[in-house]
Design goal:
mainly alpha; about 120 residues; two-stranded antiparallel ribbon; about 40% helix; globular
Length: about 120
């Protein structure tokens, strides 16, 4: 994953360079903080980048999950959290965040239905 790809939100490192929260394969740990990717900063960045498009976020993370399964298949399952743990790590967290709404333009359809 490149720094300009989704989930690459970062913060300033010691020398002022931006530290990207991107995965390090094959274990899929964050290059910036060392936690399992997507780490909290990467999740926050993904939620902002995919605001209003939870389906697109899920599709992107599903592709990451597919890649991670290929990478993690040869590693010790106990160290990766097993199938359920990997699924929850990549996709399970997305439903726990409130849906971010896209701004509406013009009158809402509810006011039209109400006859106003």
């Amino acid at each position: 994953m490149k720094a300009d790809e989704p989930g690459s939100g970062g913060n300033a490192g010691e020398n002022g360079d931006r530290v990207e929260h991107v995965p390090s394969r094959p274990r899929w740990h964050c290059r910036a903080c060392g936690h399992a990717w997507p780490c909290i900063p990467a999740r926050d960045s993904l939620l902002v980048e995919y605001a209003g498009s939870r389906v697109a976020l899920s599709l992107y993370l599903s592709a990451c999950l597919h890649d991670a399964i290929d990478d993690l298949r040869d590693l010790d399952a106990r160290s990766t959290g097993g199938c359920g743990g990997v699924f929850d790590r990549f996709l399970g967290w997305t439903h726990r965040y409130p849906a971010l709404q896209r701004p509406t333009i013009g009158p809402s359809s509810r006011s039209e239905e109400a006859g106003t």
